[in-house]
């Protein structure tokens, strides 16, 4: 049953919201002690929401587009009276005092928020191993990391613990775990979704987006959370056209798909083989393929991380232990400490020109050059992550960890929409197909995903 079909079944009283919640909660009880996808569950609140939805449906009242669906929320997005810790000891006792804009919109559309999902501490990671709650396991690849930083959300979807989950994506943190867990993840155009209520990692790069097992789940959530927000000046005026119509696409006739040679060059051959099969599927659906070259790929990671360090350091100055939380430098883990130390160093006046300002110049160069690539195609298709996820607890170097992001950071640097969907398996481990498009061409990405899904 697709997600949209489940909503329709609930509205037609073929399935109750309460029954859907009970099924998901039973799965959480059965699996979560092992997988560690959820770090906090609020069953009483979820039950009240489900009962209210069922009552309104029975009395013929109108219900929202998410009516009866169970939603997981990454624990760096404010939900009132929930522990919004960002998986860090810094905020281990911080209760959300308000709802983020995306949470208000989910509640307005009758989504049932079941709880908060695990993540890398302050979203600084690509494996969900740096969480104070312990690592999340990958339900789709035994013994492997689920990716990060939104690994809990991806794992919750893969393990059927919720219908849709929210994550945040600063350099690939939705797409990376979607690839490793074999589910769908979508990073919208920067400015399409309000960041109000999201704990910053890097404000000019962060974007909230959904995970689901099918495109109708992505579409329902995108239709819910996109649109202007007066509390976030980076959001665009108005609201995008509905996404749901894109989920019935069955053809790619007239579509030009770009394949970037350098993206394939840095990727494991076995992963490329699975991605190439998906590209062949796109051709069979009517798409034309155009080979592209992007010489700036080597600039992506250093540009991204220099901006990330400075913006993260700036965003965390409020965690000084006086108003709320602990002093971050005294309790944080090693990866957060590394980013704070480097961010502090390169934020100093005498070094900002040498590092941060040059990173901003490189960002402009990458933006201009990538826009030129996109001018000639509708979609760029390629691998999401260049290598397979490592085993949980396996020691890898900092640079090896950062290299997971080499294919995903470009979308954050440029603000364009990007997604990941399952391309197949290598040695029994899921690998992802990444799709990228021009700013505000999110619909083209979803339509392409739908054509592949409906093939």
TrEMBL record:
GO molecular function: ATP binding; glutaminyl-tRNA synthase (glutamine-hydrolyzing) activity; transferase activity
Gene3D superfamilies: Amidase signature (AS) domain
Domain Amidase residue range list: 19-446
Superkingdom, taxonomy of origin: Archaea
Pfam family, one: Amidase
HAMAP family recorded: GatA
Function: Allows the formation of correctly charged Gln-tRNA(Gln) through the transamidation of misacylated Glu-tRNA(Gln) in organisms which lack glutaminyl-tRNA synthetase. The reaction takes place in the presence of glutamine and ATP through an activated gamma-phospho-Glu-tRNA(Gln).
Subunit (UniProt): Heterotrimer of A, B and C subunits.
Protein name, entry field: Glutamyl-tRNA(Gln) amidotransferase subunit A
